[in-house]
Structures are given as C-alpha cells and as structure tokens.
Amino acid sequence: MGDSSQRRVHTVILGGGQGKRLYPLTRDRAKPAVPLGGKYRLIDVPLSNAINSGFRSIAVLTQFNSASLNNHITLTYRFDNFGHGGVEVFAAQQTDVGGEWFEGTADAVRKHLRRLGHASRYDHVLILSGDHLYRMDYGEMFERHLETGADVTVSVIPVGKEECAGFGILSAGSDGRIRTFREKPRTDDELLPLAPPASLRERWGLSAGQWIASMGVYLFRIETLREALEAPETLDFGKDILPRLIDTHAVYSFLFRGYWRDIGTISSFYEANLALTEEDPPFRFFLPDAPIYTRPRFLPASTIRDARIDHCRLADGIRVFGAELSRSVIGLRSRIDAGTRISQSILMGADDFEEEDERVAAATKGLPPMGIGPDCAIERAIVDKNARIGAGCVLRGDPSRPDEDGAGWFLRDGIVIVPKGAVLPPGTKV
Prior knowledge:
CATH class of the largest domain: Alpha Beta
Number of domains: 2
Oligomer: single chain
C-alpha cells in the first residue's frame, strides 16, 4: 500500500457523548482526555494507531468539555511543515447548521462530513472509537478492504456467549462477507442464528462457543458513507447504518486477533489500568515500530526515598517519601508522604508541581498539600489530578458496596473515586 493511497483516507475518532459511564472522571473533561496508564490519555491510543498506520488526516469529534482535549492534541500532535495531514478537534457547537448537538455516532459523522464538503480528496473514511485500548495496524484492514472491493469493512473480534449482550454481533459467510448484524442480542433466539458457519470457524480458528463482535472500527468508501447518512433518522452505526447496508452493499469483516478492551466504564477503566502492573501486561505502551504517543513534558526523574514498591507503574516526576505502594498506577508529578499505604489504586498525579511556598500558602487557607498526605490508607481507589488528601485519610473501595456520593468523593462499581481538584480533610474515612 503506497503513501498516496493512505492520503486518500480520512480518519474520524468519535469522542463520545457526556461520558456518563466514566463520571466523575468526565466531570471536567471530555472522555477522550481522561488520563490513562500514568502519563497518557485515552485519545492517544486511536491517534497513535492511525499515525503508525500512515493515516495522518484525522478529526476528533466531541461535544462536552473539549478544552483540555484540544489543548492536549495541540501540544502533542504537531506534524511538520513538509509532511501531510494533521489532527483537529471538532466540537458539536462548531457545526455549520444551527450548532446542534450530536445525537449518536452516525449523526456526529454526518455533521462532520458537512464541514468537509464534497471535495474529492478522500476516497475512504476510517471511523474509530475514542475509548478502546488496543494496538492495530489499520493498513492491514485497508488492504483487505481494497482486495474485497468492499463498500464497508468492519473490524471484528471473537467473543464468548456471555459477552454478546454488550456488543454488536454479526454473522458472516466463509468469505467474510457479513450477512446479518444485530446490536446487543440478549436472548438465545436472537443469538443462535448469528453463530458463525463451520467454514468460517475453521478458517479463523474459532471455538464452538465463540461469536463475532464488532470492535467499533469501520472503514467506508466515502460515497457509501454519504449515501448511508442521507436519512436524518439514522443516528447510530450499530443500530441503524450497518443493518441497512448489509442488504444493499458489500459489507465485509476483518478479524483482529490482538488485545482489545473497551474502557468506557469505571470498572473497565480501573481493571485495564491495573492490568498494566502485571508481570506480563496484556498491553504495552511502547513497541519500537508502533509506540503510543503522548505529550512530551520534560519532567525530572522521580524521587523515591525509604519506600517499598511492588508491581507498580510509575510515571515521571513523582515523589515518594517513606510510603508502601503495591499493584498501583502512579501518575505524573504525584506526591506521596511517609507512612501511607496504597494498593490496587490509580493516582493520576498533578498538572503542576506544588513548591514549598505554595504548600505553606495552601496551609494558611486550611488546605492540605497537593497529593497524598502522611499515614493514609488507600485501596481500590482512583484519585484524579490535583487532589488534596489530608493526613490519616482512609479510602477503601469494596465491590459489595453500592454506589454513593460523598463530600469530595464518589463510589462507583465498588471503587472510591476522588475527582479532579477535590479536597479531603485530614482523617476522612470512606
């Protein structure tokens, strides 16, 4: 596949709606801007995959709290003057027709295509989600798309029966052409007709208990996409677009065999982060030929004194003094004081270092210093950026506890969440 072909592909990354399933992490930022893995953001994953695949004309569509997302992309993804492409963020209120909100995934793309106009510089549109963790060469999918002469190609993964209710499930022939598509089937009557035929199971090496699920990665011929979006009632790709196109167009599947996780909920976000601390993590942010990019910050090396650290992921610029850390992700510029114990938790760190004079000034206002104070116990928790947790605080999540909102904290899926900039006075117990 040549570079000229790649230039004819426009990539669209769907930033999602309000991100209610990730609240309160999305209270002050768009979902794609949520920090990930100590130093990255969710948006870095699909952007890096696209760039590493040679697709450099990219738009990110969002409609809520897009300022931090725009700032991150502007500071991170600067293409040189002699190359081609770029990354732009488009918020819903910027649309040319009335400034209306996006009403679904397909509606978001429809309104974006209006901005592009009908210029012929693109032949294909690659559509991605902004809240999945995986590494993929979209060039392989593109080659398959061209080989089959597909109008649409859908990237798919094998899933077990118990997972099918959370996915769009499809049935394909032995050639990979999709015959049926159903969004989130919940009963055996809906699911059994979608079982892959024996010929496809053999070709793809699927077990008898596996179905084929959409990853939310679509590659369209641009004429097909424009045609499919003409009807204003089509709001979603899984529910509206794909089922309609299967009967009238060549819609093919592309099997993806790597690690893939939807991290659009608090529990899935938490588990995907903690999985990074394993002996052999299922996902690695750095591979020589396909790294995940993020903003270069030029931070100092971390300072660690008299600490015990086991199975943790540590970002740049952290300061740990006499604390115990286990199976946790510690984000940029985190400060953790003596006597504190942290386990199975995610600390997102801080946007800036708080110097000693600033710490004194905060104390005069009755505020604990930024970071985690001394003698705290934090377990099964997510602490967002710039939080101030006073001495002796105890934060312990528990899967058996119901969701709850408190003063400066939330409990979701049995995980204690301290939102961005929150203050927990000394001795707080959650």
